[in-house]
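Could you show me some protein's one-letter sequence and the numbers that encode its backbone in two labelled lines?

___
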Amino acid sequence: GEYGILSIPPANFLDHLYFAMVTITTVGYGDIIPVTPLGRLIVMSETFMGVFLFAFLVNAVVHRFQRHVD
């Protein structure tokens, strides 16, 4: 791609959105991969954010449920 993020020819917005959603949810289908060090760094940070956001969501739900029980 133009920025070394995708292993396919330059994509449209929907392809970029698909790649971001697959990465942030840590599904990782493998059909689109980063091909440059910068692309890999961006993907690693996006994956970390996905895991962090999921952990934050679980923590918030558990905390709210725990307050409701007490």
